[in-house]
Amino acid sequence: MLSTFARPLVDELACANDPAVLARPLTYCVTRCGGPPGGRPVIGNNGHTGSAVGTNRRRDERVGVGGRMRRLLTAAGTALALGVGGVACTSGEEEHEQFVGAGEVCGGLFSGPSAEMVEKVTGHKVFFWRSGNGMQEVVAALKDGYASGRSWAPGANLCRLSPKGAKQTDRGGITYSMYAPQDVEDEGLPAGAELYTMGVQSSVRRSGASIYFECVSPQLKGSDKAPLRIQGGFGRGESDAPDTREYRDMNMRILHAATLKLVKELDCEDNGGLPKVPVLTPK
């Protein structure tokens, strides 16, 4: 494997479909070998994938693009560091098929109705096998971020969706991180995105969905006074699926179902303020 400094610039990862990035109002890319602090930020503008278009001037004046960029790069770099591509069993792991259906990937995260929706929005039925360790990694990352006392913190991938035969940039998935309070004030949503009423803030677009909510939990000391702020994002990757209300709602349904599993693991009071049945009402 090439070292970080040996990789050429042409090996940059086009991360326009990375859920960790698309879930944010501003979209950035990091080099395939990079990530902070050596990653080279690139601001994208791609209506098809839902990348960001421009910035909100007032938001920039209040917070500053630099701070926002550092948070995005760190979150994206953390997600990329978890790895993608082929599957290989290490010693002691249970043997498994290299390719599985949507209902079996990531420890059965999308079992039930979510599996069919994942197949529809991604346009694929077979994916690289992924372990079910994503939930443990997300919970650990969120707890560590909260304990740090910072206003934001990078999270982890709950699940990577890498379709069989697809290019590396065609992958999608679900990721979570801890957001800063001012992040929900950003009006610079990705091109074509629209706000929904669920959670502190939620939005959908052709390529995915995002949701912001707060968690008060006995597992998080002090959260009754300062809740853990969680941002979740789903990206379907490259897909020829139509951009209709039905498919946009499916993007949110997939993210909502996975998020309910996360709030259960974290023991969030009142499901983190999220309904048991997703509210799919445009704001």
Structural account:
This protein is of the alpha+beta class. It contains 6 helices and 10 strands. Strands 5-6-10-9-8-7 form a 6-stranded antiparallel β-sheet. The chain has a two-stranded antiparallel ribbon with strand order 1-2. A two-stranded antiparallel ribbon has the order 3-4. Strand 7 (194-196) and strand 8 form a beta hairpin. Mean pLDDT is 74; it is low at 1-70 and 72-93.
Q: Please state roughly what percent of the residues sit in beta strands, choosing from under 5%, 5-15%, 15-25%, 25-35%, 35-45% or over 45%.
A: 15-25%
State the end-to-end CA separation.
47 Å
For the largest beta-sheet, the strand count, sense and barrel status come to: 6 strands, antiparallel
Q: What sort of overall outline do the alpha carbons produce when their principal axes are compared? A: globular
Q: How many DSSP helices? A: 6
Task: Give the strand tally.
Answer: 10
| Spatial strand order of the main sheet | 5-6-10-9-8-7
- Helix and strand pattern: HEEHHEHEHEEEEEEH
Radius of gyration: 18 Å
The structure class reads alpha+beta
Question: What's the SSE blueprint?
Answer:
Blueprint: H1 19-22, E1 28-29, E2 42-43, H2 57-63, H3 65-81, E3 99-100, H4 113-122, E4 127-128, H5 134-147, E5 153-161, E6 172-178, E7 194-196, E8 201-205, E9 208-215, E10 228-235, H6 245-266
Antiparallel strand pairs: 1-2, 3-4, 5-6, 6-10, 7-8, 8-9, 9-10
Helix pairs in contact: 2-3, 4-6
In short:
This protein has 283 residues and is of the alpha+beta class.
